Amino acid sequence: PMADVPQFQKYCILQMPLAQDYESEDWTFETLFNANKFTGKSSPTWLATAMGYNTAGGSGIANGFMLRLGDANVMGNILNGRIQFAGKGTATTGLQAGIWHHVAIVSSKKTVTVYLDGSPLYSIAAGLDKVKFVAEQGLRLAGEDRTGTNISTTTRYRYSQVRLWGEARTAEQLKNNMYGVPEDSPNLWGYWKLDNYTTGKTNVNKGDKDLTVDGEKMEIDTYFFKDYTGKNPDAFVDRNPTYNSGGLLFDTNKRIEIGYP
What we know:
By secondary structure, this protein is mainly beta. Helices cover 2% and strands 47% of the residues. Strand 11 and strand 12 (119-125) form a beta hairpin.
């Protein structure tokens, strides 16, 4: 299918707030992802992150998940990161530039598995019994914060079919439903197809790294993408106000094919 998928450049991310805190021992995050290129062995970029909360350690992306691409001495197409307060996990198989990959995280009974195109890349023991995804921060695509860390100005990170589940999806379910699921599927917490957008204004925290509820606010022009479950607020493009003061936040009106070549 063809769609106006967001294509993120440097200094912007997609903020995906949730309507409520979601907490579960078993959960799944999945997305279709396409990068036009990757970095070398240098600083990491962020494919997706989510703030998590636990009573012992408080809030942090290591308590939810930070799924990165590359790191020091790790090529920029290799998935790695910390999930559910586990130690760092690193894949050995890399993503290819210019094609759509299905990427998933499945947490089942304190075992976290990262999947690529329906096949497991690696598993690691979780450090927490469960994850509470924090409503205000929700999910974030293409960055740890609105700086869109380390993505170059000529790089495009593209996303479609983003889903958050309150269950551990099986490998068969991942393989057979990469391109869509019923919008009323049981245990589907959020479903952002990212296939079209509307424009408008929203308030964001003024501090670049400030994701707290009570942060100082400022108004920005943005693009909105709806949650097809109807449960959550619209996702929206957020940007670094210092480095990206206006203009294109992502490449609009460039419809591209979603799928494998």
